[in-house]
Amino acid sequence: MSASAMSIDDRIDLITRNLVNDSEKTLLTKEARAIMQKKLEEGSFKIYWGTATTGRPHIAYFVPISKLADFLNAGCEVTILFADLHGYLDNQKAPWELLEQRSKYYAFVIKSMLKSIGVPLDKLRFVKGTEYQLSKEYTLDVYRIASMITEHDAKKAGADVVKQVASPLLSGLLYPCLQALDEKYLQVDAQFGGIDQRKIFTMAEKYLPRVGYKKCIHLMNPMVPGLTGDKMSSSDVNSKIDLLDSAAQLKKKINKAFCEPGKVEGNGLLAFVKMVLFPIFQKIEILRKEEHGGNLCYDSYQALEDDYAAEKLWPNDLKSGVIATLNKLLQPIRDDYNKDNEIKKIDALAYPQPKAAPKAKKNAPVQREITISRVEMKVGRVVKAWQHPDADSLYVEEIDVGEEKPRTVVSGLVKFVPQNEFEGSLVVVITNFKVSKLRGQASEGMVLAASNEDHSVVEVVRPPADSKIGERITIEGESGEPDAQIDCKKSKNVWKSLVQTKKLRTTSDLLAAFDGKPLKTSAGPCTVASIADAALA
Predict the structure, then answer these.
(1) Max CA separation in the chain (angstroms)
(2) Spatial contact of 54 and 84, defined as CB atoms under 8 Å apart
(3) Are 521 and 401 in contact (CB under 8 A)?
(4) d(Cα 299, Cα 395) in Å, to the nearest integer?
(5) Residue among 270, 298, 272, 301 at smallest CA distance from 286
(6) Disulfide-capable partner of 227 in 121, 257, 339, 438 (CB 3.0 to 4.6 Å)?
(7) Alpha helix (H) residue ranges in 147-267
(8) Whole-Å CA distances, 77 to 7, 312, 418, 537
């Protein structure tokens, strides 16, 4: 039935059907209805719906699109705002260089969706936000409203729409202000959106009159759960069905949808049937074998819901009906896309495929994160120490680290630690260094020591006296298995990388530490005698 053949009351009923009508949530007051009636009687009721051109449109877009169809069928003038600037301001969800192509893709898809359900497009117009949001007048109004709104109100308004982060960007606070001003600059009587927009709508009703502009009517759709039971989102591939998904992909996703027998609340499939399929097709047919009860045809949603709640209609039957009906809805869109080479190019530019990661070489070692836990440090006792026969500055030590026999370690400590103090003392030994030769003598580890900048003072790191020989040194928050072997002769090795961070140091209270956290044994922290803020190596 054309709008001209409908009464004003019938047109209002069509405009408002399936909208949120909860007395505590709806903004559609008696005053708003009276304005709507007056505008319809005068011959022009203008509504706008905005969508940020970020992720790819999916079947949940049929929820607002089916309402836009109602508005158009009721004779309203409808503006669709491609909110490209909003998409950028919302934590940069859409890269600036892709906004133009995404707006073109959205225009194609939305026109195709409306055509697929036989909606007249003569009273539909598309507007891109940056066509007017960068003007001098609009910018000055942004400053005006920003000078009035509090940080609390701006943050609260965007709480259900703008991506929430620990340290919100200023752009996210401006987002609701822009959306409110859009009502003025698009010269509309009403704004339409999901109930997640309610706080922005409330803010607009409060602040627009303060900058001298009229308050608009706000129409809200309920949110439709996704296939997993949560909000349908373009970022969740399991929750959404792309408008260009093949029949096979569609069937696979619907069959995997969460659909608890007899449960209506939170049922994404039932919600979609109510909000989209019934308003468009006025019926749902379910084909099934005679032994399973034969075919069903529902010409009212309530009858279908009642049967489902009573478990007369089972999830598999509901899914088969949704699959068949959805394919009827999507096929015209697929056909439009497949015969339009230009839109395929735009699609590729708007949503470029991520570059494939370079293939790892066969048998290439897995790159591990640089962490101190990869270095194996143990408590050792110096059993014996003697001067290296070919180097006056080097000790050769035998150190017990709890293994079958002591390890031989070479250390440059002759000038700094008397032999009689060294022998019998506890030390920290790095035990997973590759065996290397120092002046012809194999060294099976390294004694950890602190050194001042000019290396004139060197002190051995000492574990507590009650530490257990062979126990591994621990650091709070640093867990993980040590490397089997660290080759310190290689230009890139984990030990060299850790030393370069300058996080291995002594503290002001003479604790040996990594990133300020003490190196500890079961008996307590490891220490040095006197050098504070000195590098460990």
Answers:
(1) 111
(2) no
(3) no
(4) 94
(5) 298
(6) 257
(7) 151-157, 170-185, 198-207, 247-256
(8) 17, 43, 94, 75
pLDDT at 238 over 60: no
Taking residues 440-465, what's their average pLDDT?
94
Query: What local confidence, expressed as pLDDT, does residue 359 receive?
Result: 65
Query: Which region among 170-179, 214-223, 495-504, 526-535 has the lowest average model confidence (pLDDT)?
Result: 170-179
Distance CA 127, CA 48 (A): 10
pTM check: above 0.70: no
**Nearest alpha-carbon partner for 68 in 108, 23, 110, 33:** 110
Q: What is the pLDDT of residues 276-291, one digit of tens each?
A: 899 889 899 998 888 8
| Burial readout 494-523 (b: 16 or more C-beta within 10 A, e: otherwise) | bbeebeeeeebbbbeebbbbbeebbbbbee
Give me the pLDDT at residue 190, please: 95
Q: How far apart are CA 88 and CA 427, in angstroms?
A: 57
Residue 510: what residue type?
Answer: L
Burial of 231 from C-beta contacts in 10 A (0-12 / 13-18 / 19+): middle
Q: What would the two tokens of residue 151 be?
A: 């940080």
The whole-chain average pLDDT of the chain stands at: 88
396-415 per-position pLDDT tens digit: 999 999 988 999 999 999 99
- The answer to whether the CB of 157 falls within 8 A of the CB of 199 is yes
Model pLDDT for residues 303-312, shown as the tens digit of each residue: 999 999 999 9
Q: DSSP string covering 408-452, please?
A: EEEES-TTTS-HHHHTT-EEEEE--BPPEEETTEEE--EE-EEE-
Between residues 390 and 367, the one the model is more confident about: 390
Beta bridge partners of 225: 231
The CA-based angle 427-430-432, given to 5 degrees, is 150
pLDDT at 227: 63
One-letter amino acid at 118 equals: G
